[in-house]
Write a structure and sequence with these properties.
The chain has eleven helices and 17 strands. It is of the alpha/beta class. It is globular. This is Nucleoside phosphorylase domain-containing protein.
């Protein structure tokens, strides 16, 4: 017996007040990735507030009307000013997911973390806000100077996601989202490859082994920064493979990456030091490093959801960026599927559907629409309708077998496995 069809989508909100959720990205590749998982892109313009320099896209993800914002620049300052304007333009936004890529620790809470694994923030540590002494920079950590813990709504939501039942739903939805995202990219002939790169390229050198010329460079010999070395690959420099840490990812090749929850370090500087990475992890109990969360934190309730694309050391490269952006987008959209807006049963209805310029998505093959943000073309996007409520077919067709093997989640020192051993 065929499963009943889901109800038709609600029309877009009548005005900006009907939006309660936002997704914020710092890079075009991050927006290109997450937009593939929007069920619908609204063509209706909502106007701009005087003085707001942001340019937004809007659409539907599951039952939620969502604002999509691409920041003009990376970093906490750009994120803070843009988030403040977002809160004025869309005053009822109660949660923003900061979605994209980050640098991560190679080991979190006693377990190996690999490229493509996803970090979800429970709190934010602003690592470049502090005092510079003659030999050391000391971040501020007093209650008055730090960003503090998340609000009650965010804390309650994250606590819910840590329960085994909800984690099972979240992981299954994320698995389906990742498969759908890849299919969407393929059907639209996207140049980006959202498959995981070869496992052999996921390598981590000892924290005290720098990325530098082995000989013939005065700067490298003096252990100073060398711009030329920074622009070369490990193969070109001849980085000593005997300095690689011995690790083995035993998960199936097509398994969904692990989700870690914890404190995320955020600042304006890109971290490229294994020694500094490990030092901050020891001192401040952080699990990842990114550049926008500290900016949005005080302006709008935020959760950072980012895929690990490098290990925040001098050997980092961009080979894993698209896959990490895809895993982060898959988890973020799965989280939206588990989030309930207070007092709203779904998308807040607007004017009559016939008065709105929109397309009703084809629930089998999807429909294609275009959008742009601040002159950055986001291109054509496949509209999927896989929500956590529609998992029956998804579990059999896309999340069965090898996709569900090795599914696991880590938070508070606990690892939850779904389908793996």
């Amino acid at each position: 017996m065929a499963a009943p069809l889901p109800p038709p989508p609600s029309p877009p909100p009548a005005d900006r007040g009907g939006f309660h959720l936002a997704i914020v990205c710092a890079l075009k590749l991050e927006v290109d990735t997450v937009s593939l998982l929007f069920d619908e892109i609204y063509e209706r313009p909502y106007g701009r507030v005087a003085g707001d320099n942001n340019h937004y896209s809007t659409g539907r993800v599951g039952n939620h009307a969502v604002v999509l914002l691409l920041l003009p620049d990376m970093g906490t300052r750009s994120a803070a000013s843009s988030a403040a304007a977002l809160r004025i333009a869309y005053p009822n936004v109660e949660l923003a997911l900061i979605v994209g890529v980050c640098g991560g620790l190679p080991r979190i809470d006693g377990d190996d973390a690999f490229l493509g694994d996803v970090v979800v923030s429970k709190s934010i540590f602003n690592y470049d806000f502090g005092r510079q002494y003659s030999g050391e920079f000391v971040p501020k950590t007093t209650v008055e100077d730090t960003l503090g813990r998340a609000g009650r709504n965010v804390r309650s939501f994250l606590a819910l996601l840590e329960t085994e039942h909800q984690l099972g739903l979240l992981q299954r939805a994320a698995a389906g989202n990742l498969a759908s995202l890849r299919e969407a990219a393929k059907s639209r002939s996207r140049r980006a490859d959202y498959r995981a790169p070869r496992r052999s390229s996921d390598r981590i050198f000892a924290a005290d082994y720098p990325h530098r010329h082995l000989s013939g460079c005065a700067a490298c010999a003096a252990e100073a920064f060398c711009e030329e070395a920074a622009g070369l690959s490990c193969a070109a420099l001849g980085c000593d493979e005997d300095k690689l840490l011995s690790r083995r990812d035993r998960r199936p090749l097509d398994s969904v990456p692990r989700i870690f929850m914890g404190k995320v370090a955020s600042g304006n500087a890109v971290l490229k030091s294994g020694k500094r990475r490990d030092e901050m992890a020891r001192r401040h109990d952080v699990v990842a490093f990114e550049m926008e969360g500290a900016g949005t934190w005080d302006e709008v309730p935020s959760i950072v959801v980012k895929g690990i694309c490098d290990y925040a050391d001098s050997h980092k490269n961009k080979a894993w960026q698209h896959f990490a952006a895809a895993t982060a987008a898959a988890v973020a959209v799965a989280m939206l599927g588990r989030y309930e807006v207070a007092g709203a049963g779904g998308v807040v209805p607007g004017a009559a559907a016939e008065d709105l310029s929109r397309q009703t998505p084809d629930r089998t093959a999807g429909s294609v629409q275009n959008l742009s943000v601040d002159n950055h073309s986001i291109g054509s996007h496949l509209v999927n309708n896989h929500t956590t409520e529609d998992l029956t077919a998804l579990e059999h067709n896309k999340v069965s077998g090898h996709l569900l093997q090795g599914l696991n989640f880590q938070g508070g020192g606990n690892v939850f496995n779904f389908g793996g051993k």
